[in-house]
Design a protein that fits this description.
The protein starts with a helix and ends with a strand. The longest helix is centred in the middle third of the chain and has 37 residues. The model has no long low-confidence stretch (mean pLDDT 91). The chain contains three helices and three strands; from the N terminus they run αααβββ. The protein has one domain. The chain is rod-shaped. Strands 1-2-3 form a three-stranded antiparallel β-sheet, covered by helices on one side. Strand 2 and strand 3 form a beta hairpin. Helix 1 crosses helix 2 and helix 2 packs antiparallel against helix 3. The chain is of the alpha+beta class and 130 residues long. Bound molecules: zinc ion.
């Protein structure tokens, strides 16, 4: 219900734009986590205390895991955005993204996975997603 309100309030184009921005924010997060991991590996000192070295190396490995998780999130969000973007063209009149949102289906994580829409120009109805 919340996603339906958000989609109707923003409109499809702005919602789609935000989905793309979210995906690329995850890509930036991935890049920053990799930079942090490299910086931590670089600051590793062979002569330092063992506990400090273990903390540094484990932090670097944790950063690599964070980068991987961020990249995975980037990829999945972008894939989802691509699915909606491809289906935003009216199958009847070919109008792009001028549609009314009829209903929204979310998955357990609260992500929109399917949207029932209606073309503003010719009133054709179709589904986007899944
Ligand atoms: Zn249409």
């Amino acid at each position: 219900m919340d996603a339906l309100h958000t989609l109707r309030r923003l409109g499809f184009r702005r919602w789609y734009e935000r989905l793309l921005i979210e995906a690329h924010a995850w890509l930036v997060t991935c890049f920053l986590a990799l930079v942090l991991a490299v910086a931590l590996f670089e600051s590793h000192d062979q002569t330092g205390m063992l506990t400090a070295r273990i903390a540094l190396i484990s932090s670097a490995l944790f950063s690599v895991l964070g980068a991987w998780a961020a990249y995975r999130r980037y990829f999945l969000t972008l894939q989802r955005a691509e699915i909606f973007g491809e289906k935003a063209v009216c199958p009847q009149c070919g109008t792009y993204a001028k549609l009314d949102i009829e209903s929204v289906r979310e998955n357990n994580a609260g992500e929109v996975i399917r949207v029932d829409v209606c073309c503003r120009k010719c009133r054709c109805q179709w589904q986007m997603g899944e």
